[in-house]
Design brief:
The chain is an alpha/beta fold and about 750 residues long. Among the domains are: about 315-390, no CATH class; about 405-555 and about 745-760, Rossmann fold (3-Layer(aba) Sandwich); about 570-740, Rossmann fold, CATH 3.40.50.2000. The strands form 2 sheets. A 7-stranded parallel β-sheet has the order 3-2-1-4-5-6-7, with helices on one face. Strand 2 (about 435-440), helix 24 and strand 3 form a beta-alpha-beta unit. The longest helix is centred in the middle third of the chain and has 23 residues, at about 365-390.
């Protein structure tokens, strides 16, 4: 026994923590009646090496044996804090402080847990007592300031943190709190000024330089952030944080170059979970090169990160992991990340609203629908509170001229599905009544659609490096009557600008199939088919188009997309079902129903027209779902294309729509190519998109509210070659003659609807 303890001491003396832990564990297992100091040493080593689950297990055993040992309870509390088990951490620290109420360290640990639990009132009590005992301790002043800020006592809290850095100029944590506070309040100029002051007092501080980068990024000035970091690189070529931040910024507009920096960051600091996850996110979004290989690498890295434990995962990490796992249909692994409610609440609280889109496909119950609405509202309330700190300045009323100023807020008015569907409004602007403005923050290059729209409108404000408060002020200065955002919670769109109410009437349309969650958005543009029957499933009021909420723009829906003669069945000798929908719309129940369709259709196959087919894991997971439904792997085909998928519809006999999140763009594309689409209609807006499209194309009988009927419709279409042939060569003309194809009438209806909302009769 003494040999084990001697070996442990020798290992500690030589810095071999893992060996020391092994010897200490062996000694305790051989004789649990070891002295308390042996348990203390083991816990400290487990804590310092990040082996928190083991530390918690041995800590529990230690306090059961030594229930009156302050150090053991204190260390157990710290370990539980690292595991995010905050109530249990507080319990352990309460026990510790009862045993030694005069220990400042124990009180600090307890106060820190209370701060993380957002129990700011009790945290204030802890740090007030500590600050009174040692008024010049900067850490006590800082933490008291954080507690006061949490209680809404901004000036008092700010004063305490300023006091902390006055006492200790090199107190970087205090400076970071000040910078972070102003940055969170979107007071970018003041935050950057603080960062410069902090760096003047602490030259060369990596953490403060990184904070300055964060401020510039938050202000929307990505290229200025890059320029600042480029100037730092020669002096800090191997700074992991610098490569991480450089990669994070540059990947917004140059994935390949961004990935180089992110890989270097991980290489320099393999333990940096942030860098690993941002590299994963960037790989998953990289469209150049072998996209399937990028997805596969992202998945394998995600799998390894999750296997190490979720204790250190932030909501941002969970968002990235979720997006990767759903993209390869790893649904069992998705469940390990948390429930829909747990994830939604985490993302809402962490301002990760762009994650909500990927949750829509995982809705199962009415409670899930209501939960997602509440998640959006939680985010919306927080965003409105932030915007309230930087209200826009209202210019004097413009002279009355009888004209309506309409603004569109979107970074997707370009070669993007939003641009394609919005195009009819710019081709047929109601110039007698309207002046139209557009606002974009797109990070890419000018393309032909954006150039066309720019030439059509009164003003096209394209500001890639403008922050949201300044964008809201710019919009307010244009004195709009109504502002319509087209992106919702999607990448690169500035939904938060709507929180400032830069226009007196505000609405959402087109780019996001769900309520945004902001009370400052008055309307969601719907049609009689997409509007949910239950009003409780919308945050906004529905603004109703008379027939269809979309029309098909000429840039995609053109005669240049040639339909092959006959039907694919004649050429291939089999019925081909298929989809081009994004995997974030997939789920296990959908695969079960799809398998039923194939089972009921002998001599049929299923084709995925998706770049994910280049990922081995995507293929394996998809095949497993079909095989579970009795469909052999050889009946599944993967066509790995991106951007050139329209001709592939000539190889598909019947498209099976996703549910609950239905297709939108893909549904219209399939119909334009003469391919019937079978869809399931649900209760919420995002479950009714294809139903509207099918009804307005004249084939509403292909949509149903019943899964069994979905299977029946699909198998009936497969058996009815004559109808499929008729649709193959007649559906396009039906579309052109109906609400989807009559773009000039659509534009008239749209402008009439907007005029009615701005100036109701």
């Amino acid at each position: 026994m003494n040999e084990r303890l001697a070996a442990a001491q020798a290992a500690l003396n030589s810095g071999r923590a893992a060996d020391a832990i092994e010897h200490l564990v062996a000694a305790i297992e051989a004789d649990p009646a070891q002295a308390a100091v042996i348990y203390r040493t083991l816990l400290i080593q487990l804590y310092h090496t990040g082996r928190y689950p083991e530390g918690e297990r041995w800590g529990q055993a230690a306090v059961e044996r030594f229930p009156r040992d302050f150090e053991l309870w204190n260390t157990l509390g710290i370990i539980r804090r690292r595991l995010k088990r905050l109530p249990e951490a507080l319990q352990a620290l309460d026990n510790a402080t009862k045993l030694n109420p005069n220990s400042a360290g124990g009180q600090v640990n307890r106060g820190n847990v209370l701060l993380e639990m957002r129990d700011f009132a009790r945290a204030e009590q802890v740090f007030t007592k500590l600050a009174r005992a040692d008024s010049r301790n900067p850490e006590y002043q800082r933490q008291l300031g954080r507690a006061l800020l949490g209680l809404g006592k901004r000036e008092a809290g700010l004063m305490r943190i300023r006091q902390a850095v006055a006492f200790k100029k090199d107190f970087v944590d205090g400076w970071l709190d000040l910078i972070g506070l102003f940055n969170e309040e979107l007071r970018s100029a003041e935050a950057e000024e603080l960062a410069d002051k902090a760096l003047a007092a602490n030259p060369g501080s990596a953490r403060l330089m990184e904070a300055k980068v964060a401020v510039i990024r938050r202000s929307g000035q990505l290229r200025r952030a890059e320029a600042y970091m480029q100037a730092l690189l020669p002096e800090h070529p191997d700074a992991a944080w610098l490569h991480y931040q450089m990669g994070s910024v540059v990947s917004e507009y140059d994935r390949v170059r961004g990935n180089v920096h992110l890989r270097r960051a991980v290489e320099l600091n393999p333990g940096n979970l942030d860098a690993k996850l941002v590299l994963i996110e960037s790989l998953e979004r990289t469209r150049t090169g072998d996209e399937g290989a990028n997805i596969e690498e992202a998945y394998q890295l995600t799998k390894a990160a999750v296997a190490q434990g979720l204790a250190e995962f932030t909501p941002s990490h969970l968002k990235i992991a979720f997006e990767v796992l759903v993209r390869v249909c790893a649904f069992d692994e998705l469940e390990n990340l948390g429930t829909l409610k747990a994830l939604g609440r985490a993302w809402a609280g962490a301002n990760k609203h762009t994650a909500f889109l990927k949750l829509l496909g995982q809705v199962r119950t009415h409670e899930d629908r209501l939960e997602l609405l509440e998640d959006h509202r939680i985010w919306g309330r927080a965003e409105e509170a932030r915007a309230a700190g930087r209200p826009v300045k209202r210019p004097p009323p413009r002279p009355a001229d009888g004209r309506i100023r309409l603004g569109f807020l979107s970074s997707d008015l370009r070669r993007h599905p939003v641009g394609y569907f919005a195009l009819p409004l710019f081709e047929h602007i109601d110039r007698e009544r309207f002046d139209v403005y557009c606002y974009s923050f797109y990070q890419g290059q000018l393309d032909s659609i954006q150039e066309f729209i720019t030439q059509q409108v009164t003003g096209y404000r394209w500001n890639p490096d403008m922050g949201s408060p300044d964008a809201a002020q710019m919009i307010a200065d244009d004195q709009l009557d109504i502002l319509i955002e087209l992106g919702g919670s999607t990448h690169m769109n500035r939904l938060d600008v709507m929180a400032y109410r830069a226009a007196p009437v505000q609405a959402s349309w087109l780019g996001y199939p769900h309520s945004a969650g902001l009370s400052t958005i008055d309307y969601l543009i719907c049609d009689p088919h997409t509007a949910p029957p239950q009003r409780e499933l919308l945050v906004e009021k529905p603004m109703m188009m008379p027939k269809s909420w979309i029309a098909l723009g000429r840039m995609v829906f053109s005669e240049s997309h040639v339909i092959s003669p006959g039907v694919p069945q004649d050429r291939h000798g089999v019925i081909t079902f298929g989809t081009a929908n994004n995997p974030h719309k997939y789920n296990a129940e959908m695969f079960r129903v799809w398998a039923q369709v194939l089972q009921a259709t002998p001599n049929s196959r299923f084709m995925f027209v998706r770049p994910e087919g280049g990922s081995e894991s995507f293929r394996r997971n998809v095949l497993a779902h079909f095989e579970a439904g009795g469909v052999a792997a050889e009946r599944i085909v993967f066509n790995t294309v991106r951007g050139v998928h329209m001709p592939q519809y000539n190889e598909v006999d019947v498209t099976l729509d996703t549910f609950p999140l239905t297709g939108g763009t893909t549904t219209t594309e399939a119909l334009w190519m003469g391919v019937p689409v079978v869809s399931l209609i649900g209760e919420a807006f995002f479950e009714r998109l294809s139903g509207s499209i099918l009804a307005n194309a004249g084939v509403g009988d292909m949509a149903t509210t019943d899964k069994e009927d979905y299977v029946r419709i699909a198998t009936a279409l497969a058996a009815d070659r004559d109808r499929r042939l008729e649709l193959r060569h007649g559906l396009r003309d039906m579309i052109k003659a109906g609400p989807l194809g009559q773009t000039e009438q659509f534009a008239r209806d749209f402008y009439d609807m907007v005029a009615g909302a701005v100036r109701p009769a």
